[in-house]
Every structure is written in structure tokens, then in C-alpha cells.
Amino acid sequence: MASQFISKDNSHIFQLISQGNKLKIVLEAITAWLENYIQDAIVSIMLYDPSIEKLHLISGHQHFSPEYQEMLKAVIVHEKSGTCGSAAFHKHLVISENLITDPKWSRQKDLVQKEKLTSCWSMPVLGTHGELYGTFATYYRTIRKPSDIEINLLQRAAILVSLAIEIDQERKIG
Questions:
Q1: 84-115 tens-digit pLDDT
Q2: Is 121 helix (H, G, I), strand (E, B) or coil?
Q3: How far apart are CA 142 and CA 15, in angstroms?
Q4: How far apart are the first and last CA of the chain?
Q5: Sign of the torsion formed by the C-alpha atoms of 155, 46, 102 and 78
Q6: Is the predicted pLDDT of residue 2 greater than 50, yes or no?
Q7: Rounded CA gap, 85 and 67, in Å?
Q8: DSSP character for 70?
Q9: Contact 135, 46 (CB under 8 A)
Q10: 80-87 long-range contacts, Cβ below 8 Å, gap at least 24?
């Protein structure tokens, strides 16, 4: 299945995974890859901690203020917990075109305005058996709705993140 996603565009990511690089390095490469292909995207990856049922930011720190990073250390998986919390809860793509008017963002509205973020699209990262590994998000400073091509890129990125996590887990076990 993964072979259908190999292309010159992201083959360096498969190379990083196959060489046994640390998960964080691979996730940063995936973040950079997607930022190259979606104009004006601010990309982040959050991992899920099932012991506390929360997401935490692992890649994309450099784009956010320390205050925003702090908020992203413990995002509750819930249908009304921002775009990432909602995507993790529903296990499908969630698009928030306007964070200021989106009810999922009502508690973070001031922080979002301070950060000058306007839109967010989040794709859950799921394992082979549907287990939640985290979320992949793209933020924008303008109101944006994804095209079919951009949705495909989000899906590809989520699959790459899932693959990287599964291989990392196998290495730790073996």
C-alpha cells in the first residue's frame, strides 16, 4: 500500500525512515515536505498519549509562540476541542475555515487572534488497525478551504507519519 505513495517528492522521507533515523527527525522532514507543497501552510504534528487521552505537539514548534506551544502540550481528544482534538475524536479530516467563528475554538479564540491564525485543517494519523497515533494539521493566516489536491497531500502526509510511527515502534520492541 505504501508504495503507491512513493514519489520523487517524498522519497527522501522513506529514505530517512529506512535508515533508522529518530522519529522526531522523520516527522520534521514530513512537516517540511508538506509546507513545500501547500502554499502558506504552517504544519504541525501532534502525537496521542492514550494514558492521558491527550494530544501533544511534537513537530512544528518553530511556527508558534511559547504561549501557543504551551496550549498544544495537552489537547483533549474531544469533538469540541479545536480542529486537532475534533479530528482525533471523529477519526476523519476536520476543516475549520474560520477559527474565530468556529465553536470548537471558542475557548482559544483570544490566543488564536494573538497568534494571527485564521484557518486549520487536521487529519488524524491512524495505525494499521485504526488506532489513533495523533494528528497532522495545517494552519493558515487567511481563510482557506482545501482543494482536492491539498486533501490528497494531507492524506499522504498522515500515511507517512503513521508509517514512521509504526516502524519506530517496531524498532523499540525488536
A1: 999 999 999 999 999 999 999 998 999 999 99
A2: strand
A3: 34
A4: 23
A5: positive
A6: no
A7: 18
A8: H
A9: yes
A10: 80/104, 82/108, 82/120, 83/120, 83/121, 83/122, 83/137, 84/46, 84/55, 84/120, 84/122, 84/135, 84/137, 85/55, 86/122, 87/122, 87/123, 87/124, 87/135, 87/137
| Rg of the chain taking only CA atoms, in angstroms | 15
Residue 110 is predicted with a pLDDT of: 92
Could you read off the pLDDT of 18-52 as tens digits, one per residue?
Answer: 888 899 999 999 999 999 889 899 999 999 999 99
Mean of per-residue pLDDT scores for the chain: 90
Grid cell in block for residue 30: 514530513
The grid coordinates listed for 126 are: 491512524
- Could you tell me the three cell numbers for 117? 491564525
CB 94 within 8 A of CB 77: no
Residue type, 106: S
The answer to whether 127 touches 161, Cβ cutoff 8 Å, is no
pTM: 0.88
